[in-house]
Amino acid sequence: MTIRPSRYPVAGLLAGFTLCLMMAGPAPAQTLRGETKTGAAPETKADAQPEAKADAQPEAKYDRSKYIIFIHAGPRTKDDRDVKLISGALFSKGYIVRAPDEDQDEVGGPGVDYFDESAKEPADDVAKIINETFRLLKSEGDAKQSLRPRPQSKTKNPPNWLGVWLF
Fold first, then answer.
1. Residue 116: which domain range?
2. Is it the case that residue 159 has pLDDT exceeding 90?
3. Which contacts (CB < 8 Å, 24+ apart) does range 149-156 have?
4. Checking CA distances to 3, which of 9, 74, 101, 124 falls within 20 to 30 Å?
5. What one-character-per-residue DSSP string does 65-127 give?
6. Which tens digit of pLDDT belongs to each residue from 31-83?
7. pTM here?
8. Side by side, which strands form the sheet with 161-165?
9. Confidence class of residue 167 from pLDDT cuts 50, 70 and 90?
10. Mean pLDDT within 126-130
């Protein structure tokens, strides 16, 4: 596997930003005086009630920025819209994401490979993020199955590397 820099590094950031905006939903508009469009004054910290989100992910027990994700997008091209949005979703969660390549795992199929037992939880997190992104993009028909983490003992890679085989 060779690591090549992306010709369009800004495209991945824009894709991640776009995906984050799609997931966040509309924000209330405010005027310069801090009033909302309805004319009500904004809540103070004392007035604000903490909201419990049912779909909120718990805080990770590890540092996501220490994990490097290698995305293998074959048979699609590395410039495919969905591939860029998946890369952006992982980047927005704090992972280091390398430029996708066009390799495909024709034997094992889609999955998230990890190379050390300590990376099992991050691999599971990456699989969940990608499966959720597929669901939002409604691209499940392309993936034969939902991605799951899978240990790789024959390949010797650093313990903080994760290989993502999308299709």
1. 9-22+63-165
2. yes
3. 149/111, 149/112, 149/113, 149/114, 149/120, 149/123, 149/124, 150/108, 150/111, 150/112, 150/113, 150/114, 150/123, 151/113, 151/114, 151/115, 151/117, 151/120, 152/113, 152/114, 152/115, 155/113, 155/115, 156/115
4. 124
5. GG-EEEEE-TTS-TT-HHHHHHHHHHHHTT-EEPPPB----TTT-SEEEESSGGGHHHHHHHH
6. 444 444 445 444 444 444 444 444 455 566 889 999 999 999 989 998 999 99
7. 0.64
8. 96-97, 68-72, 161-165, 111-114, 149-151
9. confident
10. 96
Q: Give a yes or no: residue 54 inside a domain.
A: no
Q: Let me know how long the chain is.
A: 167
What would the two tokens of residue 86 be? Answer: 């998946």
Whether residue 161 is contained in a domain is answered as yes
